[in-house]
Design goal:
Elements: E1 2-7, E2 11-18, E3 21-28, H1 29-35, E4 37-39, E5 44-46, E6 58-62, E7 75-76, H2 79-91, E8 96-101, E9 106-112, E10 115-122, H3 130-140, H4 144-148, H5 162-175, H6 179-199, E11 206-209, H7 216-226, E12 231-232, H8 239-244
Parallel strand pairs: 1-6, 6-7, 8-11, 11-12
Antiparallel strand pairs: 1-2, 2-3, 4-5, 8-9, 9-10
Helix pairs in contact: 3-5, 3-6, 6-7
Protein backbone atom coordinates (compact mmCIF):
# COMPACT_ATOMS: atom_id res chain seq x y z
CA UNK A 1 0.00 0.00 0.00
CA UNK A 2 1.06 3.58 -0.72
CA UNK A 3 -0.40 6.77 0.68
CA UNK A 4 -0.08 10.25 -0.76
CA UNK A 5 -1.06 13.10 1.56
CA UNK A 6 -1.56 16.77 0.74
CA UNK A 7 -1.59 18.71 4.01
CA UNK A 8 -3.65 21.73 3.00
CA UNK A 9 -4.62 24.68 5.17
CA UNK A 10 -8.33 23.80 5.16
CA UNK A 11 -8.41 20.15 4.14
CA UNK A 12 -6.05 17.21 4.06
CA UNK A 13 -6.37 15.23 0.85
CA UNK A 14 -5.39 11.56 0.90
CA UNK A 15 -4.71 9.18 -2.01
CA UNK A 16 -4.77 5.49 -1.09
CA UNK A 17 -3.17 3.09 -3.57
CA UNK A 18 -3.74 -0.63 -3.28
CA UNK A 19 -2.29 -2.37 -6.29
CA UNK A 20 -3.67 -0.53 -9.31
CA UNK A 21 -6.68 0.81 -7.41
CA UNK A 22 -6.52 4.41 -6.13
CA UNK A 23 -9.12 5.99 -3.83
CA UNK A 24 -9.28 9.61 -2.75
CA UNK A 25 -10.40 10.98 0.61
CA UNK A 26 -10.64 14.42 2.19
CA UNK A 27 -10.57 15.34 5.87
CA UNK A 28 -10.82 18.62 7.73
CA UNK A 29 -7.28 19.75 8.59
CA UNK A 30 -7.98 20.24 12.29
CA UNK A 31 -9.66 16.82 12.46
CA UNK A 32 -6.60 15.29 10.79
CA UNK A 33 -4.10 16.74 13.25
CA UNK A 34 -6.27 15.75 16.19
CA UNK A 35 -7.06 12.23 15.05
CA UNK A 36 -4.49 11.08 12.46
CA UNK A 37 -1.25 12.17 14.13
CA UNK A 38 0.26 9.90 16.76
CA UNK A 39 2.65 11.51 19.21
CA UNK A 40 5.11 9.78 21.52
CA UNK A 41 7.91 11.25 23.64
CA UNK A 42 10.39 10.95 20.79
CA UNK A 43 8.45 10.79 17.51
CA UNK A 44 5.49 12.12 15.60
CA UNK A 45 3.87 9.80 13.08
CA UNK A 46 0.96 9.90 10.69
CA UNK A 47 -1.57 7.26 11.71
CA UNK A 48 -3.81 6.27 8.83
CA UNK A 49 -4.69 2.81 10.09
CA UNK A 50 -8.31 3.82 9.49
CA UNK A 51 -7.49 3.52 5.79
CA UNK A 52 -5.73 0.16 6.22
CA UNK A 53 -2.20 1.53 6.55
CA UNK A 54 0.36 -0.36 8.63
CA UNK A 55 4.11 -0.15 9.37
CA UNK A 56 4.90 -1.32 5.83
CA UNK A 57 2.87 1.38 4.11
CA UNK A 58 4.87 3.90 2.08
CA UNK A 59 3.73 7.42 2.98
CA UNK A 60 4.67 10.55 1.06
CA UNK A 61 3.40 13.95 2.17
CA UNK A 62 3.32 17.44 0.71
CA UNK A 63 1.31 20.62 1.11
CA UNK A 64 1.16 23.74 3.19
CA UNK A 65 1.57 21.84 6.48
CA UNK A 66 4.40 19.53 5.44
CA UNK A 67 6.99 21.47 7.45
CA UNK A 68 4.85 22.10 10.54
CA UNK A 69 5.74 18.72 12.02
CA UNK A 70 8.60 16.30 11.44
CA UNK A 71 6.88 13.02 10.64
CA UNK A 72 9.02 9.97 11.38
CA UNK A 73 7.14 7.68 9.00
CA UNK A 74 6.64 9.91 5.97
CA UNK A 75 8.75 11.09 3.07
CA UNK A 76 8.15 14.82 2.63
CA UNK A 77 8.37 16.49 -0.78
CA UNK A 78 7.70 19.98 -2.11
CA UNK A 79 4.32 20.97 -3.51
CA UNK A 80 5.92 21.74 -6.87
CA UNK A 81 7.22 18.17 -7.22
CA UNK A 82 3.93 16.65 -6.09
CA UNK A 83 1.72 18.71 -8.41
CA UNK A 84 4.12 18.21 -11.31
CA UNK A 85 3.96 14.43 -11.03
CA UNK A 86 0.21 14.48 -10.51
CA UNK A 87 -0.38 16.50 -13.66
CA UNK A 88 2.22 14.55 -15.65
CA UNK A 89 0.40 11.27 -15.04
CA UNK A 90 -3.14 12.68 -15.17
CA UNK A 91 -2.67 14.35 -18.54
CA UNK A 92 -0.23 11.97 -20.23
CA UNK A 93 1.43 15.07 -21.70
CA UNK A 94 5.11 15.96 -21.43
CA UNK A 95 4.92 19.67 -22.19
CA UNK A 96 2.36 21.96 -20.59
CA UNK A 97 1.70 24.69 -18.07
CA UNK A 98 0.00 23.74 -14.80
CA UNK A 99 -1.89 26.35 -12.79
CA UNK A 100 -2.66 25.36 -9.22
CA UNK A 101 -4.62 27.61 -6.89
CA UNK A 102 -4.58 26.43 -3.31
CA UNK A 103 -6.09 27.73 -0.12
CA UNK A 104 -3.00 29.76 0.81
CA UNK A 105 -1.02 30.24 -2.40
CA UNK A 106 -1.06 29.90 -6.16
CA UNK A 107 1.62 28.39 -8.36
CA UNK A 108 2.38 27.89 -12.03
CA UNK A 109 4.66 25.08 -13.22
CA UNK A 110 6.09 24.84 -16.72
CA UNK A 111 6.82 21.26 -17.75
CA UNK A 112 8.99 20.65 -20.81
CA UNK A 113 10.05 17.26 -22.21
CA UNK A 114 8.62 15.62 -19.12
CA UNK A 115 10.61 17.64 -16.58
CA UNK A 116 10.07 20.80 -14.56
CA UNK A 117 11.53 23.60 -16.69
CA UNK A 118 10.52 26.41 -14.34
CA UNK A 119 7.92 27.44 -11.82
CA UNK A 120 6.66 30.53 -10.07
CA UNK A 121 4.68 30.85 -6.86
CA UNK A 122 2.59 33.56 -5.30
CA UNK A 123 2.62 32.84 -1.60
CA UNK A 124 2.83 36.46 -0.44
CA UNK A 125 -0.69 37.62 -1.17
CA UNK A 126 -3.97 35.85 -0.40
CA UNK A 127 -5.89 37.79 -3.05
CA UNK A 128 -5.42 35.03 -5.64
CA UNK A 129 -6.11 32.04 -3.41
CA UNK A 130 -9.01 29.83 -2.47
CA UNK A 131 -9.21 31.53 0.91
CA UNK A 132 -10.07 34.83 -0.76
CA UNK A 133 -12.79 33.13 -2.80
CA UNK A 134 -14.32 31.66 0.35
CA UNK A 135 -14.24 35.03 2.10
CA UNK A 136 -15.80 36.71 -0.95
CA UNK A 137 -18.63 34.16 -0.91
CA UNK A 138 -19.19 34.83 2.78
CA UNK A 139 -19.41 38.57 2.20
CA UNK A 140 -21.72 38.14 -0.82
CA UNK A 141 -23.76 35.44 1.00
CA UNK A 142 -23.50 33.01 -1.90
CA UNK A 143 -22.05 29.52 -2.38
CA UNK A 144 -18.87 28.70 -4.29
CA UNK A 145 -21.03 27.05 -6.96
CA UNK A 146 -23.08 30.21 -7.33
CA UNK A 147 -19.92 32.29 -7.59
CA UNK A 148 -18.54 29.99 -10.31
CA UNK A 149 -21.58 30.73 -12.49
CA UNK A 150 -21.07 34.52 -12.35
CA UNK A 151 -19.27 35.79 -15.46
CA UNK A 152 -21.42 38.57 -16.91
CA UNK A 153 -20.70 42.29 -16.52
CA UNK A 154 -17.83 41.91 -14.03
CA UNK A 155 -17.40 44.94 -11.83
CA UNK A 156 -13.86 46.30 -11.73
CA UNK A 157 -12.10 45.45 -8.47
CA UNK A 158 -8.90 47.40 -8.06
CA UNK A 159 -7.53 46.32 -4.71
CA UNK A 160 -4.51 44.03 -4.91
CA UNK A 161 -4.59 43.03 -1.25
CA UNK A 162 -7.05 40.43 0.05
CA UNK A 163 -7.99 42.53 3.08
CA UNK A 164 -8.63 45.66 1.02
CA UNK A 165 -10.42 43.58 -1.63
CA UNK A 166 -12.90 42.38 0.97
CA UNK A 167 -13.52 45.97 2.03
CA UNK A 168 -14.01 46.86 -1.63
CA UNK A 169 -16.67 44.14 -1.96
CA UNK A 170 -18.59 45.63 0.95
CA UNK A 171 -18.33 49.01 -0.74
CA UNK A 172 -19.78 47.64 -3.99
CA UNK A 173 -22.68 46.10 -2.09
CA UNK A 174 -23.30 49.47 -0.44
CA UNK A 175 -23.32 51.14 -3.88
CA UNK A 176 -26.10 48.76 -4.94
CA UNK A 177 -24.07 46.85 -7.53
CA UNK A 178 -25.86 43.53 -8.32
CA UNK A 179 -24.34 40.52 -6.58
CA UNK A 180 -23.91 38.74 -9.92
CA UNK A 181 -21.72 41.55 -11.23
CA UNK A 182 -19.63 41.66 -8.06
CA UNK A 183 -19.19 37.87 -8.18
CA UNK A 184 -18.10 38.08 -11.80
CA UNK A 185 -15.66 40.79 -10.75
CA UNK A 186 -14.20 38.49 -8.10
CA UNK A 187 -13.60 35.75 -10.69
CA UNK A 188 -12.15 38.23 -13.17
CA UNK A 189 -9.85 39.82 -10.58
CA UNK A 190 -8.30 36.49 -9.58
CA UNK A 191 -7.78 35.55 -13.22
CA UNK A 192 -6.12 38.94 -13.74
CA UNK A 193 -3.68 38.24 -10.90
CA UNK A 194 -2.86 34.74 -12.18
CA UNK A 195 -2.39 35.68 -15.82
CA UNK A 196 1.05 37.31 -15.47
CA UNK A 197 2.35 34.06 -13.97
CA UNK A 198 1.21 32.15 -17.08
CA UNK A 199 2.15 34.72 -19.71
CA UNK A 200 5.89 34.39 -19.17
CA UNK A 201 5.95 30.83 -20.55
CA UNK A 202 4.18 31.46 -23.87
CA UNK A 203 2.78 27.93 -24.12
CA UNK A 204 -0.80 27.28 -25.13
CA UNK A 205 -1.46 23.89 -23.54
CA UNK A 206 -2.55 24.82 -20.05
CA UNK A 207 -4.09 22.69 -17.30
CA UNK A 208 -5.64 23.77 -14.02
CA UNK A 209 -5.58 21.91 -10.69
CA UNK A 210 -6.58 22.57 -7.10
CA UNK A 211 -10.04 23.07 -5.66
CA UNK A 212 -10.33 26.50 -7.28
CA UNK A 213 -10.01 24.85 -10.70
CA UNK A 214 -13.65 23.80 -10.26
CA UNK A 215 -14.63 27.49 -10.48
CA UNK A 216 -15.67 27.54 -14.15
CA UNK A 217 -16.07 31.31 -14.11
CA UNK A 218 -12.48 31.88 -13.10
CA UNK A 219 -11.25 29.34 -15.68
CA UNK A 220 -13.29 31.10 -18.37
CA UNK A 221 -11.75 34.49 -17.62
CA UNK A 222 -8.26 33.02 -17.44
CA UNK A 223 -8.75 31.16 -20.73
CA UNK A 224 -9.78 34.39 -22.45
CA UNK A 225 -6.74 36.24 -21.12
CA UNK A 226 -4.35 33.43 -22.06
CA UNK A 227 -6.06 32.86 -25.43
CA UNK A 228 -6.10 29.16 -24.60
CA UNK A 229 -8.82 26.66 -23.72
CA UNK A 230 -7.57 25.81 -20.23
CA UNK A 231 -8.45 22.24 -19.27
CA UNK A 232 -9.18 21.10 -15.73
CA UNK A 233 -7.36 17.88 -14.93
CA UNK A 234 -9.16 14.86 -13.51
CA UNK A 235 -9.78 15.08 -9.74
CA UNK A 236 -8.19 18.57 -9.61
CA UNK A 237 -8.28 19.04 -5.84
CA UNK A 238 -6.47 15.71 -5.33
CA UNK A 239 -3.63 16.39 -7.76
CA UNK A 240 -1.07 16.97 -5.01
CA UNK A 241 -1.74 13.78 -3.06
CA UNK A 242 -2.00 11.83 -6.32
CA UNK A 243 1.42 13.12 -7.35
CA UNK A 244 2.88 11.94 -4.02
CA UNK A 245 2.15 8.35 -5.04
CA UNK A 246 4.86 8.59 -7.71
CA UNK A 247 7.68 9.04 -5.19
Amino acid sequence: MKLGIDLGSRFVKIAVQNGENIDFHREDTVFFYKNRVKRTESTIEIDLSAYGADENTIITATGYGRNMLSFANANVISEIKAHYQGALHSTGEDEFILVDVGGQDSKVIYVREGYIEDFVMNDKCAASTGRFLENACRILDISLDELAAMTENPVKLNSTCAVFSESELVGKIAEGVPTEHIGAGVNESIARRLFPLIRKYRHKKIYAAGGVAENSGLIRFLSEMAESDIQVIKNPQYNGCYGCLWY
